[in-house]
Write a structure and sequence with these properties.
The complex is a heterodimer of chains A (111) and B (113).
Chain A (H helix, E strand, L loop, with lengths): L3 E4 L2 E5 L4 E7 L3 E9 L6 E6 L5 E4 L2 E5 L5 E6 L8 E9 L6 E2 L3 E6 L1
Parallel strand pairs in A: 2-11
Antiparallel strand pairs in A: 1-3, 3-8, 4-5, 4-9, 6-7, 7-8, 9-10, 9-11
Chain B lengths: L3 E4 L2 E4 L5 E7 L5 E8 L3 E10 L2 E4 L6 E3 L9 E3 L8 E8 L8 E2 L3 E5 L1
Parallel strand pairs in B: 2-11
Antiparallel strand pairs in B: 1-3, 3-8, 4-5, 4-9, 5-6, 7-8, 9-10, 9-11
Classes of the chains: A mainly beta (111), B mainly beta (113).
């Protein structure tokens, strides 16, 4: 079945440093979504990417969808303590309507 | 508009007990699902429903039952609780089964002793 691998599992950064998490799928995806979960909270939707090579920005967050629609990344510029949490990708393959979640990347920001 | 409401927030069960985790959404969403979240394992799909009267198994369905008698409600039943079911459970809903964002409930932290 479809697998979505997400790396790294954890990332420690100093406040102000950049951060990137990557998702790779074993199959071609029809779309990919990103979610953020604050410590003790629930996942909250950030964005959805649909087109090959798509790039979307939300303030300091940049989301990319690979040309082959098998990988995606989330990049945060100049991290802040408010960015702390776990970031999940969720990929939907062409033959399924059930999204597969990556295991998440936990971001720890040191002030 | 409350979104997705899960109850209870916390629960402690003894091994062998049964219970129902409640989930309700007021957004007229077609698709609802249950996940469990364990450290380092991400979100694993337990059961899902694409509409009232239709349910199906996800990745880790053993030990759980669901039903979807109305569009709004999607309860998750633990038949005979086991320590391996200690986890955080999330209910989620989305407008349709594809290409739409999922809204998650606040979660239920379940401990089985």
């Amino acid at each position: 079945g479809q697998q979505v691998m997400q790396i790294p599992q954890y990332q420690h950064v100093q406040e102000g440093e950049d951060f990137t998490t990557y998702c790779n799928s074993s199959t071609t995806l029809s779309n990919i979504q990103w979610y953020k979960q604050r410590p003790g909270g629930h996942p909250v939707f950030l964005i959805q990417l649909v087109k090959s090579g798509e790039v979307k920005k939300q303030k300091r967050l940049t989301f990319q969808f690979g040309e082959a629609k098998k990988n995606s990344s989330l990049h945060i510029t100049a991290t802040q303590t408010t960015d702390v949490g776990t970031y999940f990708c969720a990929g939907l393959s062409g033959g399924s309507y059930i999204p597969t979640f990556g295991r998440g990347t936990s971001l720890i920001v040191h002030p | 508009n409350a979104g997705v409401t899960q109850t209870p927030k916390f629960q402690v069960l003894k091994t062998g007990q049964s219970m129902t985790l409640q989930c309700a959404q007021d957004m007229n969403h077609e698709y609802m699902s249950w996940y469990r979240q364990d450290p380092g394992m991400g979100l694993r799909l337990i059961h899902y429903s694409v509409g009232a009267g239709i349910t199906d198994q996800g990745e880790v369905p053993n030990g759980y039952n669901v039903s979807r008698s109305t569009t709004e409600d999607f309860p998750l039943r633990l038949l005979s609780a086991a320590p391996s079911q200690t986890s955080v459970y999330f209910c989620a809903s989305s407008l349709t089964v594809m290409n739409t964002e999922a809204f998650f409930g606040q979660g239920t932290r379940l401990t089985v002793v």
